[in-house]
Every structure is written in structure tokens, then in C-alpha cells.
Amino acid sequence: MRSLVLALAVFCLLCCSAARPERRRPKLVAVKRRNDTTIQNNTPENPCKATPLDFVFVIDSSRSIRLEDYDKVKTFIVNLLQFLDVGPNATRVGLLQYGSVVQPEFSLNTYTSKAQVEEAVRNMRHLATGTMTGLAIQYTMEVELTEEQGARPKSLQIPRIAMIVTDGRPQDTVEEIAAEAREAGIQIFAIGVGRVEMKTLKAIGSEPHSEHVHLVANFSQIETLISVFKSKLCGGADMCKVVEHQCQHLCVSSPASYRCRCRKGFTLNPDGKTCKAEDTCAAVDHGCDHICVNLADGYECLCRPGYELTIDLKTCNRIDYCDLGNHGCEHNCVSLPGSYICSCKKGFVLNADGKTCSQIDHCAAGSHGCEQEFMNTETSCVCKCTNGYTLRSDGKTCQKVDPCADGSHGCEQEFVSAGDSCVCRCSKGFTLRPDGKTCKKVDPCADGSHGCEQEFVSAGDSCVCRCRKGFTLRPDGKTCKSVDLCQTLDHGCEHLCVSTTDSYICKCNEGFLLAENGKSCGKPGCHDGVMDLVFVIDGSKSLGPANFELVKQFVNSIVDSLDVSRTATRVGLIQFSTKVRTEFSLGQHAAAQDVKRAVSQMQYMGRGSMTGSALRHMFQFSFSEKEGARLNVPRVCVVFTDGRSQDDVSEWASKAKTLGVTIYALGVGKAIEQELREIASEPAEMHLYYAEDFEKMGEITKKLKSRMCKDKPADESLCRCESVIMFQSQVTEKLKNLAQSIEEMSKKLETLENQVANK
């Protein structure tokens, strides 16, 4: 019987109560298309009591739905709207349809009246593509039912409803994303038509399925659901009154269900039924010195035993029972929480009466173990030695006095006791003279075994080799070589530094000439290509922070191959996720190092993937004169993505290419080839690049550098990507220098290890 009552109460609190008795039943309105007529009856428009909802229709617009069936879905939506009170402060309505991609028609904050919503529904156009139901549910959760798109804050407790209409098996998975949407508080109604499986609808719809899942044989029968929803919209009962809700405090009805709430000062437990008192002490800065106790209307401070609350009702003072003056302690009185105890001074023990004290004789027990004499002190029994002896480190036995202790040994540096005598010694680096008292310094170079090629000098205990001016010591620490000034001076050579006997000269890489200043290098009659280059980088959450760092390295490797300046190549970058953000414009940086620094500091967005919005932003803003684009300068765009876009990419990519922007499309991992082809310039084989994972991005980098160089203007054909050649030459030279430095350091370490071993 209870399940029958629940079925009658489904959806009753979406927005309405019973209709006024003097008004007739609401009429059903068919969507008007071309020469179709409007179905009418004599029912008033809105017999329902206003209950605010955030309501989103999610409509399957796949190719399996015929055009006449598509119109029946629109008629179903318009007729269902007759039972909703549409308005900014009542029910807000949004709608999206989906095929292979999601196409939002209007959001919750787009229209403010029912007439506007109906007109928008009538104007919808059939997509006739695939069936990505899971993608549509994800878009509904992450975009449509958010405050940015018009959903009201969850604190207002306005139900968030999604009604999904579909006619076939999804081409993607729906179980996990539907469960995530329901967990986020979205109540889902699943309506299936024709060959869709009931288990798929149950995986989408909310519990109980008898109230949220409906299946009809064909689109002609979808109209039968109007009467089902109409009776529940306007004729149902309060769910809290017809079910055993078991709410501890309050029950609040919601569409086809209910939820429990707690009275002021309480919060709902994880079981969704019972309530617990709010921990005011944990939520506020109570300032209690010891203990904070929650009350129904706030909190109060208490003190631990032995303390009392001060006049500020927060801090605590200790109660000093010794100050009462009646403790009777002979030596000391120590206050405790709620009482006091007596204690004795050092060297005394408390008597059995707990008040008086007696001195302790630590030697009386005879267990002191002293070899010669002993003495009682306040804390222990201390051993002593007779005259001419001193106490050993064990504190018990005695030894004869050190013969060096009287200072009459006459040693110049060090001395040591040896039996009954005192013997002189010398510090390290010195040797004892024949008088047995004084010391002389040892010359470590005197024996001639130092092996130094040029010069040597004594340094403490060792003999150190040195080289004459113009030479430097080799890693073996003995032989010398001519000084390489290129390694020791800030020579300022742009390309190569070559050491001479006592100086150095600068040289240039192949294809360059040395300038008059003798340091910088220039190209003979050939300059790098001039272009305005904009990177469009995917920052969606599927990428992940680690891979996003690899993308930034990829961008900087491309920048390294370009001649970046105000007059040569200018570089801009935008990042996109659910939103689009300009990281820096074409006119913002005039040097490669500034561009690379900006790329390295770029923060990962990590949300959705709106590639189409990013292309629109690039077309409308990035190549504008305001952002630094130049007239009659080639415009190049590099688009990077790792997955399917949540919006259409073809429109804005086509517009950009029509106006002369050359677009390179780079895809990694789950990027869709068809989308990449729609983005890239023709021919696709010259402008589209794909890698299976981020570890193979290096292959894309090499191919893109090569292609961008080949696509330079004709008068630059002789340059052969000079910036790339220059970069490779510089890296090669640096690697040679690094290898030489490592070899020299290894020899020095080997020499030091041999010296330590010989010592």
C-alpha cells in the first residue's frame, strides 16, 4: 500500500499544489513547425502552486531520431512547461541537446518567462549525430547546474532537476557519471523511448526507480507521460506525510522524495536522519583558558580542578591552598589541585607525620664503596682520597697525583705523564730538539719527494705544488698547463671563445660573421622569418598537472627556435578549460627569455575542455592590433589538446583560416582526429600532428619546428632555420665544455684521494 502512495506522490513538490476549483484543466500544446497547426483545449495555463526549481532538459538529438519524432519531443517539452511556474524567483529552466557533442540551447539564467522558453524550444534544430549520453550528463553537472549558469546556491535548498530523454544505447558509459551527478544532489528523471534498455535508464535515474524511470514504446506514446507528470505535479500529496521518514527533527518534501533537516543549533548526521548539537566551541574563537562547554544558545568557560574562573569569565587562576597559612609544613608547602603537600629541603626527608623533616645520612648504610675516605653531603655520600692521591673517574678509587700537574716539567708545547715522570712532546708539524724540552718546525718539502713540475711551497704539514704566471695546476696536483682564459674570464663572445698563448679571440658558428666589436655574430644577408604566433593550450583536468608541465616545456622549446623581438617574431598564449584565459598577448613580451619566463609561471586551470570557445577567443581578440598583432605579417596559431572538446570547433577554426591564420593542430592521447582535422589548415598532413602519449611529444616538437621553418616567406628560404642551427651549435659547445670540466674535476678528486690514502 505504501508503494502505491509513493507512486501517487512522485514529483508532487516540483512546483505545485492542487489547481483552483473554478479553473479548468490545463491544455496540451503541440510544437508548431512550418505548416503544422497548434493543438488546443480549454485548460488554463498554470494551475499549479509555485515551488522554485532549477530544471534542465537533456534531450537526445542523435541520428536515430527521425525529424517527425524530434518534433514530438519538442511538443512533449512545451506541454510539460504548462505545469511549471517559470520565472527568476520561481522555476528556472535550461535545455541542452546532445549527439556526438553537447550543444547547450539555453541556460537557467537565459530566459525569465515561460513564453521565451517555449519559443526557444520551438526553434531547436535536430543535430542528427551520435549518442554521447554520459558526456551530456557530465556537462549538465559541471556546467549547466552551476551558479555561473544560473543555478541558485545550495544553501537555499532549491531542488536541482535533470530530465533526460533518449531513444537508444549510449556510445559512452553513463553509470559512474550519473552516480556522481546524483551524489552531487541532482535529481535525475530518465525517460526512454523505443529500444533503449531499462537497465541503462535505471543506471541514470534517481531512486526510487518507480518514480524516476519511464519507458514508452515509441515517440507517439511519449505524450502519455504528460498525464503522469501532470497528476504528480498538481494532484499529489506531501511526501513527508505519506512515508515513514524517520527524521529526528524536521522533514522537508522535495520532488518525488524528501530530505531531513535539523533545528537551529544542530547539524545533520551522515545517516541523513538524526541530528547532533553544533560544536560552538570548535567553530568560534571562544578564548577559554581551560575548558569550553557547548550550550544550547552558545558556550561557557570552565576551569580544571584546583583553579577558579576570573572576573572576565574566560581565564583561570590556580587556587593556592598553601596561602591559607594552616598547612603546618616544617620546610616547604606545595599547592596541588584541590589540596597541598609538604616537602623538605635538599638533604632532608619527610617524616611519617607528613609535616616535619630529618637530615639524610647517605653514608650510614656502608654501601658507598669508597677506597679511602668518604663524606656525607646533602644529596649523596661522596668519596675522597688522602693527601698525595687523586680520585679516579669512577668516583671511588684513588691514584697517585700526576707528576706533570705541578707545572715544573719545562715542556715548550705538550707533555704527558709516564709512570712517575713527565715527558715532553711536540705538536703536529714539529719535532723535539735534543734538549728534550723545546721543538722545531718540520719542512715537508725538504726531502725532495714532492714531484712538483715548477714550484713548491710548504703549507702546514704538507708540500704544495704551484705554477708560474700564465700556467695553472693540472688535476694531478703536480704538473702545470697553459691557462685557458676562455674558461676563466667573462670573455663576452656570442658564439665561440678560442684561447691563445696569453689571451683569447672570439669566433662565430658556420654561416655567421664576426661583428666589428670582435665579440657578437651576425648573419650575412639572411634573417629569421617574421610572424605573429599564438599558442592555444589545453588546460583541462584530463591533462593532469605533471603533463601540463611537459606542455610548458614543449612551448618553450618552440620559442627557443625563434627570433623573438618587436620587429621579428611576436609570441602570445591563451589557456582554455571550461573558460578561456589570455596568459600573455602578442605585444606583451619582446624577448625570448621573457616569453619563456611567462610560460613557466603559467598556472594550470584543470577543469573542462571548451576548445571551440578558445578558438573563438583567438579569432576575435588574440590577433587584434590592440593585443599586438601587426598588419601584413604572417599569422600562425598552434593549438594543443589531449581530448574531445565539449563544444563545436569547426566554426571558429574555419573563420580564422578564412582570414589567413595558419593553424597547426597538435593532439596527444585521447585527442579526436576528426576534431584535429577541422582545426588544422590544409593540407592536413602538413599541419596536423599526433602522439600517443606525452613521452612522444619530442617527435611533435621536431616535426613542428621543421614545418614552421619550411613555411617561412620565400625570401627567407636561404636561412634554413638559423635559430635552430644556432641553438644546436651552442648546446654542442656547452656540452663539450661541461665534459671537459667533469674530466678535470675527476682527476682532482683522484689526486686528493691518493693524498689522503698516503697519509
UniProtKB/TrEMBL annotation:
It comes from the Eukaryota. Residues 1-19 form the signal peptide. It is found in: Secreted. This is Matrilin 2. InterPro entries: ECM_Assembly_Org, EGF, EGF-like_Ca-bd_dom, EGF-type_Asp/Asn_hydroxyl_site, Growth_fac_rcpt_cys_sf, Matrilin_CC_sf, Matrilin_CC_trimer, VWF_A. Keywords: Coiled coil, Disulfide bond, EGF-like domain, Glycoprotein, Repeat, Secreted, Signal. It comes from Xiphophorus maculatus (Southern platyfish). Residues 728-755 form a coiled coil. One of its GO terms (cellular component) is extracellular region. CDD domains: EGF_CA. The keyword Electron transport does not apply. GO terms for molecular function: calcium ion binding. Gene3D superfamilies: 1.20.5.30, Laminin, von Willebrand factor, type A domain. Residues 54-229, 532-704 form the VWFA domain.
